[in-house]
Amino acid sequence: MQNSVGSLMGDPKVRRFLKLLSDRGFVQESLVTINGMEKKLFRFGPQGTLLRKNIIKEWWDAVVSHQVNTFCLESSPLMIKTNPQNTSSSTESSVRLVSLDSSSNPVDCALRASLSKECLEAYLSSLQMTSGQLPLSLASTGQCFNLKTEDKSSDNNSKLLNNGLCETHLLSQHYLPPVNVAQAVEFWTRKRLSWWKKFSTNPSKICSSTSSVTNGNKTSISRTIIGYSFPWGIEPLETIDNHGNSPLLDLESKSGPSPQVRHDKAVFHAHLLECQTSVESCMAAFLTDSYREKTVKATSSEKKQDIKKVLQLHPLLCPYHVALSVTGSKKKEVFILSQHVAKELREGNLSVLHLPRNSDSMESQYRRNDELGVPYTVVLSDQTLESGVIIIRSRDTSLKQQHHIKDLQSILLTNLHPTELVK
């Protein structure tokens, strides 16, 4: 039996986690009603925006940059409706655009619910790029609108980053010869599972299952679902759909050129394998997975035990790799030095949190950086001016070590997986 987030909201740990995400600029959620449907709007602060940027980059590197014959697409979330009379789809919302030129007729459009259609429509032109040879892949990222009517008995509005009115989808389509489909399904399932587990502090919470489902065209397809075990139950993160050749047969019936492919004297329609997730699903899984709490002993008999909150985000996803803090009696001089240090670290491909001088205690700064998911805090002090000694404090262990400032960048790069951070 799965618990809903609604039933878990009474859990103080869940409330503290959601408050941290809001207070620290990751995400704020609000409910809106569209045509009688309740949907959520997401507002991403500075840390959430950086996290999203890093997620997209890692997805792009894995799916596009390191793959052969992969082509990128981008288009408007507004789609021109070729059959305005057809309003059977409950996932689309109609919009009428009127040209300023009075001689032009109004254009009926729809807010797209998926990136699949525009990728499929680009298949023929992409096939020319490979001289008609398979395999080839198409990849696209972009905003899509969720206008599906939810089951009133569901608790989706209570789940983190779920049931959003607008979400950023990440889609890859792989067009294959029929003989290569089984091998490709195994390859992409293994590859995508590996990608999700790479960024998880607890990979055992990432799981997969395969079943037959019926798609929107009433066609049975094989679907693999990659899911994550949230506190309220397992939720899907990504789908890997084996559509067979049905989408290409449908494309042939609608287009002039034949999308058939010749290979080894055989003529066939390509089979389509489609992998789809969203940035919001990634954020929900990685933020939930990274959240930790530690009880700090009270310093006096009158003070209650304190709870330290930490986001142990993967170094490739965290908003900042390192934070710089200044302390001592010569703060002005040390701050000037810290500006030069920040510049050198950024030139070394490290993202740096370097805030103006403030009066917060070092302990308060450590806590803030832990809640932001910053792996390392570097403290510069009077001793740094005198002898070059700095303190490097680890987010995950809270251990503080002294090093010479000249070794700072190499130490950080070594601890933050240099083969992946250094270009």
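^ that was protein a. below is b, sequence first then the tokens
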Amino acid sequence: MAGEPEIITWSCWLRTVVAGITALFLLAFAGMNNGASNLLLSQLTKKDSLIPISQDQESWVGFEACAVVYLAEICATEQRSIVLAWLRALFSAGVLLVEVINTCVSWPVACLGFSLAAFAFAIAELFVPESPAWLFRQGKEEAAVKNLQRLGRSQAGVHLEIETLRQRESSTESLSWRTFLKPTVWKPFVILAVFHVIQLSTGCDVIIFYQVDFLASLGTTYDPVSVSVALSTVRFLSNITVGVYTNSISRKLSTAISGFCMAVPLAGAVIYEYHYRCVPCDRPVQWLPLTFIFAYLVAAEFAVNCLPGTMVGELYPLSVRGTMSGATHFAAHCSYFAYVKFYFACLRVLKIHGILFVFAASSFLAGLFGIYILPETHGKSLVEVERGFEGKTQEIDQNIVVPLSSINS
């Protein structure tokens, strides 16, 4: 019955997870790709490497991908936060897998295994159901209804989903200067672009890329490869526990908590590294800076290290969601490339304590960004999020009867 609230059943959950399983594991591949850069660098920089590379050449290794938009579009409002929260956990699992492989096999064997896995993944993608929102945008309303039913959505949920899609502009996706000037387009783009830059400035992704080199620069005598595996393990465990929980609560609150909790241990690491900057080896309490770094990366998984990517699938209107998500990821990857390329140059100038200070200041800024700028999306439908950028507060009429004969068939 139209007007009834949608009830998300276990069947709906199961069907959504099955439909999005390849998109979920695509994030694991993204983590493997990021971790692969660390695997390659740790082996190619050895003196007996088959392909020796210089420090400058190190910054040209790496790649990444995402499937956030698809998952955001196939999930109901109640499912979206939880499903998107698992993306970062799977990303961390991919990084951890590569770190473990790095201790067991050579990089040619590892790359062969990754290539075969990617081929199998491409075959599996052929069986993934299309996004109902995308089908609707292409004028295939009946197919969109059928796919919503395949996802286990209730009759009331299908009615509401189709009606909200009808209420929005559903023209063929296109991007022009006029489109970009709409507040529902340029506002989320600016917010997400700035959020990505702040997140990159906190150093989390740079540390993943140069994990072994970064750990060595802390001046401890611990084996950086072993510490790297431990670090990836802690990141993964924090993702599947605290990270999943905090992604199911307010975006603004979790970002503020995450940013401020990152800044505190980083400040401790700055003090330690600055105090012992003239002691190249045999430093006292060498476990302390590593503890600070571990705490900082766990806090990052609360929100700051995962929300910039997952919120891409939540903020844009349907008519330009694909295009603007691509534009956002392009801007983010350009920034990522710049940070990776200039890391060693900044390290030579600022030293490790200066780099950590930049990370700490950026983390504090991320907390403020979450409080004052980041829009709230938790518990809201994608249409409600879009209307927030329009400055409108009206709610969707749940009592509208939609004459969809295919739903009742």
